Amino acid sequence: MSVAPNLPTSNVGDQNQAPPQDFRRETDLYMPMTNIVRVLRRELPPHAKISDDAMEIIQECVSEFISIVTSEANEKAHREYRKTIHPEDVIAAMSSLGFDNYVEPLT
């Protein structure tokens, strides 16, 4: 019996194999849509309608924004030999990324 090269093999009885550690579905990387919709409903007039495509783009943008701010805050924590991100790290990240208008409301 020959096996095609570079193809994963599995045994018939291996039904409960765990996915690799770095396995994530693409949707796991985004903020939940229910949270996005809740914010949009709170901020927009009641009669406003948003297409599904627009909501998906907003979801991607919000998630990317959170990722960028978190990464910057994490770098600050690491420079200070800490593993935990503190609120001050997030505020400093917002400032260093040019979002100075948000610093005062966050503090």
Automatic annotation (TrEMBL):
Biological process, per Gene Ontology: regulation of transcription by RNA polymerase II
SUPFAM superfamilies in UniProt: Histone-fold
Keyword Transcription regulation in annotation: yes
Signal sequence interval, chain numbering: none
TM segment ranges: none
CDD domains on file: HFD_NFYB
Pfam families in the record: CBFD_NFYB_HMF
Polar residues composition-biased segments: 7-19
Residue ranges of the region described as Disordered: 1-26
GO molecular function, one term: DNA-binding transcription factor activity, RNA polymerase II-specific
Start and end residues of each Transcription factor CBF/NF-Y/archaeal histone domain: 30-94
Parts forming coiled coils: none
InterPro entries: CBFA_NFYB_domain, Histone-fold, Transc_fact_NFYB/HAP3
Gene Ontology annotations for the cellular component aspect, listed alphabetically: CCAAT-binding factor complex
Top-rank taxon, per record: Eukaryota
Keywords: Transcription, Transcription regulation
Keyword DNA damage: no
Similarity field: Belongs to the NFYB/HAP3 subunit family.
Protein's UniProt name: Transcription factor CBF/NF-Y/archaeal histone domain-containing protein
